[in-house]
């Protein structure tokens, strides 16, 4: 009995050993039908199946450009579920209880097949097993047997893997490849569910390639899908990044205004309000030019409302406050009488707004170089606007005070010299006015457009009874600007499309750039171009067109795979559409500017004729007095003058040469003039003009 019991025990033990011995003859890749062990076998070297947190990507090298802090790349085209580490970091085991589709990985390598344990590989039992690996220990090696390439057990479809490839290329700074990969997805209509994410990757890649206008086109398409889409808010943020990279931030104003009702991220909310205020300011001024003052009033009121919503401590507040001051000046300038302007609340509000801008833009330590540059430019514009406001109110000495604040050589310096010449003329300081005009007529500024300077010079000579010199100056004015007037009139009368007006100016720019020889008509058109570009909005739009054309030309410098790709063709077509729209906009502004300047030039020519008539009349009266007196009668006499200067100045006689360090310091001395005066610089300011 005991013996039979022992035999039964041995038989059971043998069957158990035969059942548990694995077979190395078969291996089913990716299949594990056994339950996963909760404990790791002692001495096992398998990788832990715990997920690790993804770590931040480090900089690749010293020469790489650092990512701007505001351009957050964490919002890539991957979904939150895709932020898990790659499947290669865990055993490639898939169980029926936990299907792989529920835990997708960011990158999905092919699953590794299960291999037999070491005991089988080292000559273990080859008994008749079932061919299934039911061990609880994870395999160590891959058996080179069957492979099912069409099976993706990582939990991602092949389409999602294609998108991940584009994302990873972007993260590895391979922007051209990332852009082309994303564009391929966009061309496949079967992948419509991934198009939004693919376009987001494409837009960001184009931005990193420096193709800002192309990037803007792609972000515009994303925004057109509406606020319910995944990347709407982040696309709005990228608009601000683009505005800081382009020469003209107004290229995004239309896009900003289109989404004005959306809630912008708090970080960019004040910048958005400033840009929207600028949009309404530009729109209001355009409505004024086309004779729609009622609609323009609404735009300027919107400017004021938006400025009130920006905190005073915000970096964009000074620029917004400047727009508010301009809007108030526009409303107050409807008053024609100087006395009425001095008591007008809008004019006073404009003055206070500009003073606030000047206070906020004082040079202080701690500002970045870029911010200091912006503040300096804005401060200069505020000084100019204060001077113009006081000049319009006939407070000429206030105007001279603010014009003197513009530093020599700055952007507004020549304009300040010209405007101070008129203010000096009003207070009778003729010699200082003529000194400024000498600077404006120097060869250094021959390309600048100041036709009114010759009229002012003729008037000053007329005021000092120098009639012959006044006539000679007027003849010079007509010889220089009458052909410009005729060419302007011919252009305006053609009634061309808006784009054609810009094309005329663009042709002049092209000849200047290529150094081509210009005929007499081209020289006149070049003056008209400089005249048109005195409009700041037109100049900025022109800069945008040139920048966009430069981006189009840059395609030739790209790698051949990108240059001849379908993406390049698509982008070029998009840039052409943007260029056409900008040219149409620039053409409208150019036509309006040319029409305005034609009217102004007609007025100047008429004033010149009036001065010539007055001069001729005075000369006639003088000759009649000579005949009545029966002899020679003097009309002018030598003035009393002095060449004494202050201790920090040096008197140096002018003999026709110009030196850069002397520009702006000239003071013309009228040695003779009207016989009833002792000096040219008499006090002619009336009580009303004080």
UniProtKB/TrEMBL annotation:
Regions of compositional bias (Low complexity) in chain numbering: 75-109
The keyword Electron transport belongs to this UniProt entry's keyword annotation: no
Stretches assigned to coiled coil: none
Region (Disordered): 34-135
Keywords, sorted A to Z: Signal
Phosphoprotein recorded as keyword: no
Signal sequence coordinates: 1-25
Source taxon at top rank: Bacteria
Sequence ranges of Basic residues compositional bias: 37-63
Protein name: Adventurous gliding motility protein GltC
